[in-house]
Design goal:
Among the domains are: about 180 residues, P-loop containing nucleotide triphosphate hydrolases (Rossmann fold); about 190 residues, no CATH class; about 100 residues; about 180 residues, no CATH class; about 230 residues, no CATH class. Helix content is about 65%, strand content about 5%. It has 34 helices and 18 strands. The longest helix has about 80 residues. Heterodimer of SbcC and SbcD. This is Nuclease SbcCD subunit C. One of its GO terms (molecular function) is ATP hydrolysis activity.
């Protein structure tokens, strides 16, 4: 990779466009990039790196903007690099993101980052390759074989970072090396192994929990009795030939060590007691111990069997014991006894039922005989009700007609009362008849004094009169409806007249306004005409006024420029005079801090300065005076008003300034010696303090070494005590679990007792229900047998043979009883009985199951109350909690012990380190004293007459600066004087002969002369200079005149428009006045016509409405009266029809009652009975008949007759015998079921345990292997000697290669004194357990002792860091595929080197040029500028930096 040309625009500290020609710099092989601090030397390297990778090195890449703040707002940042990579010439153009001004409006918008990569073809044409940032980065990284971090470390050698790399601990050094060398595959292997270890641990823990869960379930399923039996078997003496070793079983929950869980030598089966005889003389489980008893050792249980050591063997032993216990349970005699007891009880219950039924039949027969009279009454009532039901419809019809007649009569009366006012006002009809009374009646009789109708006459008003009155009103409504249109027309006429009158009033007012406006318009028109003529004349004078204003403005600007230059000239002359006065004093300004510090900057009271030193200082002061006298030569007697004197003065000042600069360049080389001497003073002081501090630390560590072993022993004793307490946790946990089981069993026992009582009650109810249904079935079956003759007779067919006797004749077939049961009834009763039997058996099974569960709970909990069991559980848990609490302190105590041990080891390590550092410090102090003497001798020769080299350099720098300031002031006086002479002759401002008054302010004169006094040449008629005040007044006057003319000219269009509007308005108003007069005349005539028509129409309407307020009101009143009359006539007609229908219905009902045998309608109505009452009485009659038939059938039943003759059975004794047998049978079933269930459950759990163990053991082995490998690769394993991670091991080999390459250069640069060593041990500051493999030590060839890099001085650290950086560059280059870097850059750090060491470093850098490689040094050390001719200078200015090549 070789860069050719770099162009920088608005980037970093460069506001403009700068170009760097690397080809010209690389011709010399070694070139220097120098400039002041902050000028932008590193920015050149940043631009190069940004062009290649799109980012800048280090923390600067995190800056929000890379654009130069001094650049113009519209100039965007960019870098263009022409570079050759692997024989291909590229041109890369990049522009970072920046905020550019918006094209429209104000503010800024973000311009995104851009890139263009081009390649030069053989034809000489640039061909674009890509404009994507990612593709450009991949292209450059692929060709170079390095990423951005590697390129910055290899091609730019940042010394600050390598100094940190040299002094870093192992972890920080590893992070740097990981950025340069890819160890992802090894780090991924570490991470993968750690993940596999975690995953394997989780898997084996989950599988182990499954094993533990199955073991716990086996213990729960086995129960305390079986666990105790197993313990007793294992504790019994082994037969000859068996293994006599300790069984090693864990203690059983709830059993104390050494106790026998089954007293008496028996192993009771859960739910039974040893030695208790069951009905039938059999025991429910294995009995006493013997060769075949429970103490016989189960198959496969020889030797020690433990759930912890051999879970499968332990489970097999439990399965064997459970199988033996289940096989020992037998109960055939119990089952036979319970069946016999149940049969006897059923027979006794059946006999008692038959006796009860026979007695009940006799009682019912006597009761039926007593109810014979009730039966006769029911038959009579039902017959009379049947006859009344035939007459009831006619009676109900007559009642309905009566209701209808009453309703119509009330409606007719109401309608007559509402129409009464109309009837009273009706006039008699023609012929002497009254319309109210009807035809043929006189008009007068029956009326009151006022002609009103009486009450009798109101009732006699007929529907015909009402209809006639209705027709009269309808006719009048029709006649008045024809006049409604006239009423509407009258309203329209009145509204039209009002509108016309309003319009007449409005137009009259409008005509008055028009006449008033016509009177004033002519005067307004004449005034506007005069104003328009004046404005047009002002517009014609505008060009001349604008020219006069421009001339006045130009003269004012010329006067202001002349006066400003005159003031600047005076200031420049004063500044030059001040600068020269400083030089004429013979001594340049000194640095107060330097004068106060004295020689070597040590201060006036520094030790070692005696009388001889003060005499030397006096001689040096006399030399300084001689130099000041030489400085004054050539600058005295000059005249600032004479241009030739100013030029000669500038030449003399320039000569003196160059002489001082040349002298300063010679003294710059000694700055490093002065800095080194000061460093040695400080270093010696620090060394003395360090040695004193190390001595004190050594004494303190000795005391700590004596005290720490006792503390370590104490911590170990506390940890052992806590671990002893934690060992009791398993037993406490087992006791707590056993107490929890007892508490649960006690609670379950109490609940089961209540459930058992309820189940027994339900069983009793089920037994009673089954017995009732059995009786019902037998009753139905007997009834069907009794009525079998009638059932057979129903199937007889005339002419066919009888199925019983075979005769074809059937003279008297039997008739079925009224409620004879059928075959379906018998089958339904049988089904009900079977279901009840099933429910009874289910209830008995439930009682047996609950009793079995209760026995199990009692076997576990005994008679212990639940609160007492809870208290025992709380006590066990409290003891467990106390042990767990004590065990929680174990990790902390272990950590304390580890810390104490680590502290002891650390104290021992620090003691050895302090011994080594004491030896190194004493050796360094001796070397520093010798170097201090050499430097003091060299500086005494260099400072000459001055007290110190620094004082001499400061004096020469101050004199050079003063000369430079005086030289700049002289140049400024010369420049401003020429500009002032040119400005004074512009626009004739100093040759004004127009005679407009005296000047206000002479050029360069005193302001106290005032503006009203004439200038010196006015009396003789000489030209006067134009003042700024007069020029400003002339400009204001011209602008005032111009503004007035513009205002007048601008009013011309408005005046023309206004005048035209007035003329048009005058013409329109005249036309409008004439139109208004004509319109008013026509409207007044129309109002008169409308008034006459309205009067005529109103007269006709008044005559038609009579006394009503309006015609509409009269029509509404007539319509209401007509409707009332219509309703009254209709009601009268309905009243007559309803009366006739009522009379006919009453006649029909009376005839029907007489025909049915009743005395009348009321007699028939009294005999009527409701249908429900009739049905109830009929059902009572049928029930009496059914009861008689059933009683007769029961009394004839032979079984009932035979049962009545037998004695009464003892049911209580039979039930007691049955209950005793059921209890014995239930206990037997419970014992057998629990034993078989436990056996099957243990067998299933044993199979599950085998599966869990088969899955857990491989997982545990996988976790062990993964744990070892992960610990080995992470550096935490004891097998890893150096505690190195796998990635650190790989990086350690890379670091060793870097050290080998660095030592080739470090040996030369240090004069054979120093070499780097790769240390596999952890660094002193490392605290991690895996920080080894990346340590660095410095071997001192003079002492033969290896040193920590932190003990190197500044210069030693620089050359060591440089050698390390160059070595790392070689290794990274080789790692990247051997890519050749044509140009390298070394950034800063040379200021800490002495002359000899600098020569060695430059020799090494010069050697890097082999093969045509160019090396660029970035530094501001002055001596390098004399040694390296090829230079790139960075200049820093107020408005940004620039590059000079």
């Amino acid at each position: 990779m070789r860069p050719h040309r770099l162009r920088i625009t608005a980037f970093g500290s460069f506001p403009g466009e700068e170009e760097v020609d690397f080809d010209a710099l690389s011709e010399a092989g070694l070139f220097l990039i120098h400039g002041p601090t902050g000028a932008g030397k590193t920015t050149v390297l940043d631009a190069l790196c940004y062009a290649l990778y799109g980012q800048v090195p280090g923390q600067r890449n995190s800056a929000r903007s890379l654009r130069c703040d001094h650049a113009p707002p519209a100039r965007g940042p960019s870098v263009v690099l022409e570079v050759t990579i692997r024989g291909r010439l590229f041109r890369i153009t990049r522009s970072p993101a920046w905020q550019r001004p918006k094209q429209r409006g104000t503010g800024t918008t973000e311009e995104k980052a851009k890139v263009i990569v081009e390649e030069l073809q053989a034809s000489g044409e640039w061909i674009g390759l890509t404009t994507r940032a990612d593709e450009a980065g991949e292209l450059v990284s692929g060709l170079l074989g390095m990423n951005a971090a590697q390129f910055c470390q290899v091609a730019m050698l940042p010394q600050g970072e390598f100094a940190r790399f040299l002094r870093a601990d192992g972890e920080e050094r590893r992070k740097v090396l990981e950025r340069l060398f890819s160890v992802k595959i090894y780090a991924a292997a570490e991470s993968w192994l750690a993940d596999r270890r975690t995953e394997a641990f989780r898997d084996q823990q989950a599988l182990r929990r499954e094993v533990d869960s199955v073991v716990n379930r086996i213990e729960e399923a086995a129960g305390l009795d079986l666990l105790a039996a197993l313990a007793a078997v294992l504790e019994a003496p082994s037969p000859p030939g068996d293994d006599d070793s300790d069984p090693g079983l864990f203690p059983l929950p709830g059993a104390e060590p050494g106790t026998d869980p089954a007293p008496g030598g028996t192993v009771p089966v859960e739910g039974s007691a040893a030695g208790t005889a069951e009905p039938g003389g059999t025991a429910p489980g294995p009995g006493t111990a013997g060769p075949e008893g429970a103490r016989s050792r189960p198959e496969g249980s020889a030797g020690a069997v433990s759930a912890e050591d051999d879970p499968l063997g332990w489970a097999d032993a439990l399965v064997t014991l459970a199988g033996e216990a289940a096989a020992a349970v037998a109960g055939e005699e119990i089952e036979a006894a319970v069946l016999e007891a149940r049969r006897r009880l059923e027979d006794g219950v059946a006999l008692a039922d038959r006796r009860r039924r026979h007695a009940e039949a006799l009682t019912r027969s006597r009761a039926l005989e007593e109810r014979a009279e009730e039966r006769a009454d029911l038959e009579a009532i039902l017959a009379e009700a049947a006859r009344a039901d035939r007459v009831l419809p006619l009676i109900q019809e007559a009642g309905q007609r009566a209701e209808t007649a009453a309703k119509t009569r009330n409606l007719a009366a109401d309608a007559r009362s509402r129409a009464l006012p109309l009837l009273r006002g009706a006039a008699p009809a023609a012929g002497g008849e009254d319309r109210v009374a009807g035809p043929g009646r006189p008009a007068g009789p029956g009326r009151g004094p006022d002609g009103a109708l009486g009450s009798a006459e109101e009732r006699s008003v007929g529907p015909d009169l009402l209809a006639a009155l209705e027709r009269d009103r309808r006719d009048e409504i029709t006649r008045l409806g024809e006049l409604r249109a006239e009423e509407t027309r009258l309203g329209e006429i009145l509204r039209e007249r009002v509108l016309e009158e309003q319009e007449i009033t409005r137009r009259t007012v409008e005509q008055a306004g028009v006449e008033t406006r016509l009177e004033i318009l002519p005067a307004l028109r004449d005034g506007l005409d005069a104003r328009l003529t004046s404005a047009r004349l002002d517009a014609a004078r505008l060009p001349a006024a604008e020219a006069a204003r421009e001339t006045a403005a130009a003269r004012l600007r010329a006067v202001e420029n002349r006066d400003r230059l005159a003031a600047d000239l005076d200031a420049a002359r004063r500044e030059l005079t001040e600068r020269l006065s400083v030089l004429e004093q013979g001594r340049a300004p000194q640095n107060p801090a330097t004068d106060a510090a004295g020689p070597e900057g040590r201060g006036p009271d520094a030790p070692g300065e005696g009388t001889g030193d003060r005499e030397a200082a006096g001689s040096r002061d006399s030399g300084a005076l001689r130099d000041a006298a030489e400085l004054r030569e050539g600058i005295e007697g000059w005249d600032p008003d004479v241009p030739g004197d100013v030029a000669e003065l500038r030449e003399a000042l320039g000569s003196r300034e160059r002489e001082r600069r040349d002298a300063l360049a010679g003294l710059e080389g000694l700055r490093a010696d002065e800095a080194r001497l000061a460093e040695l003073d400080a270093e010696l002081a620090v060394l003395d303090a360090d040695l004193h501090g190390l001595t004190e630390q050594e004494a303190a560590l000795a005391g700590a070494q004596r005290e720490l072993p006792a503390a370590l022993a104490e911590a170990s004793a506390r940890l052992a005590a806590v671990r002893a307490e934690a060992a009791g946790i398993p037993a406490a946990q087992a006791a707590a679990d056993a107490a929890a089981v007892v508490l649960e069993s006690a609670r379950r026992r109490d609940a089961l007792r209540a459930d058992l009582e309820a189940a027994r009650a339900a069983r009793s109810g089920a037994v009673d229900r089954a017995q009732d249904l059995r009786d019902r079935l037998q009753h139905i079956r007997q009834a069907r047998i009794d009525g079998m003759a009638a059932e057979l007779a129903a199937g007889l067919v005339p002419g066919e043979a009888c199925a019983v006797c075979g005769s074809p004749d059937h003279p008297a077939p039997a008739s079925p009883a009224e409620a004879a049961p059928t075959a379906d009834d018998e089958r339904a009763a049988q089904s009900d009985y079977d279901a009840a039997t099933d429910r009874r058996q289910a209830a008995e099974s439930a009682v047996a199951a609950l009793a079995s569960q209760l026995d199990e709970a009692v076997a576990v909990a005994g008679d212990l109350a639940a609160p007492e069991a809870g208290e025992a559980l709380d006590a066990a848990r409290g003891e467990l909690a106390a042990l767990l609490s004590a065990a929680e302190a174990e990790p902390g105590l272990a950590a304390d012990l580890d810390r104490a041990a680590a502290e002891l080891e650390a104290v021992k390590g620090r003691a050895g380190e302090i011994d080594r550092r004491l030896a190194e410090g004493q050796a360094r102090r001796i070397g520093a004293r010798a170097e201090q003497a050499r430097l003091e001798s060299r500086l005494d020769e260099a400072r000459g007459a001055d007290p110190t080299v620094r004082a001499r350099r400061d004096r020469l720098a101050a004199e050079a600066a003063a000369l430079a300031l005086a030289l700049a002031a002289a140049a400024r006086v010369e420049e401003i004087s020429a500009l002032h002479r040119e400005a004074a002759t512009r626009h004739g401002i100093d040759r004004d002969t127009i005679g407009r008054g005296p000047a206000d302010e002479p050029v360069g004169g005193d302001e106290s002369l005032g503006g009203d006094e004439p200038a010196a040449g006015d009396a003789q008629g000489e030209p006067r200079a134009l003042s700024a005040v007069r020029a400003a007044e002339d400009l204001r006057e011209a602008e005032r005149i111009l503004d007035g003319l513009r205002e007048a000219a601008g009013a011309v269009p408005a005046l023309e428009t206004e005048l035209g509007g007035l003329v048009a308005e005058l013409k329109d108003l005249q036309e409008r006045s004439r139109g208004l007069a004509v319109d008013l005349s026509a409207r007044r005539a129309n109002v008169e016509r409308l008034t006459a028509e309205a009067d005529r129409t109103a007269a006709r309407l008044d005559a038609a409405r009579g006394e009503d307020p309006t015609l509409a009101a009269r029509l509404e009143r007539l319509a209401d009266e007509a409707e009332l009359l219509r309703e009254a006539a209709e009601a009268a007609r309905q009243e007559r029809a309803a009366a006739a229908e009522l009379e006919a219905a009453l006649a029909r009902a009376g005839a029907a009652a007489a025909e049915a045998g009743f005395l009348g309608v009321e007699d028939a109505r009294a005999a009527v009975r409701p249908a429900a009452e009739q049905a109830d009485k009929a059902e009572r009659l049928r029930a009496l008949d059914r009861e008689r038939a059933a009683v007769d059938a029961q009394l004839a039943d032979p079984e009932l007759i035979a049962a009545a003759a037998e004695p009464e059975p003892d049911l209580a004794a039979l039930e007691a015998a049955r209950d005793a047998a059921d209890t014995a049978h239930a206990a037997f079933l419970s014992t057998r079921n629990r034993a078989e269930g436990r056996r099957d459950r243990l067998a299933a759990l044993r199979a599950e345990l085998a599966g869990c163990l088969g899955r857990w053991r491989p997982a545990a082995e996988r976790h062990r292997l993964a744990d070892r490998l992960a610990a080995l690769t992470s550096g935490n394993s004891s097998d890893n000697r150096w505690s190195m991670r796998l990635s650190s091991y790989v990086l350690g080999e890379r670091l060793r290669q870097v050290v080998d390459s660095a030592n080739e250069r470090l040996d030369h640069m240090s004069g054979g004194r120093y070499l780097l060593e790769h240390d596999l041990r952890r660094a002193a500051g490392d605290r991690s357990r895996s920080g080894g493999g990346l340590g660095l030590r410095v071997l001192d060839g003079w002492t033969g002792v290896d040193r920590d890099p932190a003990t190197l001085s500044g210069g030693e650290g620089f050359i060591t860091s440089l050698a390390l950086a160059l070595g790392l560059a070689d290794v990274v280059t080789a790692e990247a595929g051997g890519v050749e870097l044509g140009t390298l850059f070394v950034d800063e750090g040379f200021g800490t080197l002495d002359e000899d060491t600098l020569d060695g470093v430059l020799d090494i850098l010069d050697g890097l040029r082999d093969g045509g490689r160019a090396v660029g040094i970035v530094s501001h050390v002055g001596e390098l500028r004399t040694r390296i001719p090829a230079q790139l200078q960075i200049r820093k200015e107020r408005h940004g930096s620039s590059i000079r090549q």
